[in-house]
Amino acid sequence: MKPFVDDRLDALRGPALRLPYNARSLAALENNPRCTLRALLDVSGSDKAAIAAHIGYPAPFGQSAFAFARGNAFESVVKDNGCAELLRVLRETLELTLPEVAYLDLNDVGGAGDNHTRHEHTARLLLQAARGTGDGTLFDHPLLHLKVGGQDAFLEPDLVAFRIDGRFYVVEIKSFPIIDGQADPAQVRAATTQACAYIIALRALLAQNGISPEAVSDTIVLVAPKDFTNRPTAAFVDARKQVAALTRQLARLERISDLVDLLPEGLTFDLDFDKDRRPRRPAEELAAAVEQVPATYRPDCLNHCEMAFYCRERARAEASLDVLGPAVREQLGGIDTATMALGLARGQLTPTVDQSDMAAALRHAARLRDELTGAYGGAA
Length: 380
Ligand code: SF4
What we know:
alpha/beta, two-stranded antiparallel ribbon, 8 strands
């Protein structure tokens, strides 16, 4: 019999097929760890994009065909001929000593290629390498596995893992450029966070077989186009903090029953699809259900969550300071809304004891602003 929590999560999703976790949805856990709505939608396997669209806030995500083609073309450049270009970059750019290299494509299982078969194949070859009984150095297309909130998540990275000096390293191949040794920090962070999921999954595989997690490095090798060419270059990225943060979030999902216990009786995000996958559930009813779950909007949700336009609108309607980002939120500790901040600044609200210092600072800022706008207004 299924445990109560699984039944409750199934009821949240409705009869639709569960959407599995992938590296991107796992990475989002680290991006907004406090968000209950995201945690519940993901762990129940609900279709966030379909929910957002049905309640009037379609997701802005989706790679353009051009970006997709460019990404695939660059990956081919790096991986063709047994990862010859990758080897060049590892040796020349990163100055790694990889004298003899055995390339293994772990996609190549022959016959049935279901996730379990492919994962077993990956596990067998990586474990042989870790124990020094196999001959692989470069492992292309490993299929990794994690339990997330009690659910199987197969991570199908386009990545290569390589082994040097007894340690595995995860390689992330991305098509955004590294120009003069610098790349867009937001894109590097997103790539690193995804790679963290692979590191954690690889460590879990080794740990289940009595091998220390230290056998997997938490330094990632980022491979991307150099300057404005299609020629690959590479850089090491330290992912220690992100690995630790994502590990904490995964542990939190193991305690998902704590969140489920707080949900109103009968709450569901079921879209009630018809046979053509058109939602039959009234949009207002679904919106009312979603609204019952706390969401912790931050501006960078726009980069990683399908619910972002909905949550931004909701935070604005509540005059939440979340819309202004964590820096403002932290500065105005103890004050939850813009309405409250303005009321304190104008002396229209009486601060609590905890708010008194912040209220004095806000009144001071308001006075300065009035003086400045008055002065400039007078001069105009
Ligand atoms: S967009 Fe909404 S649901 Fe998604 S992480 Fe942000 S606050 Fe949570």
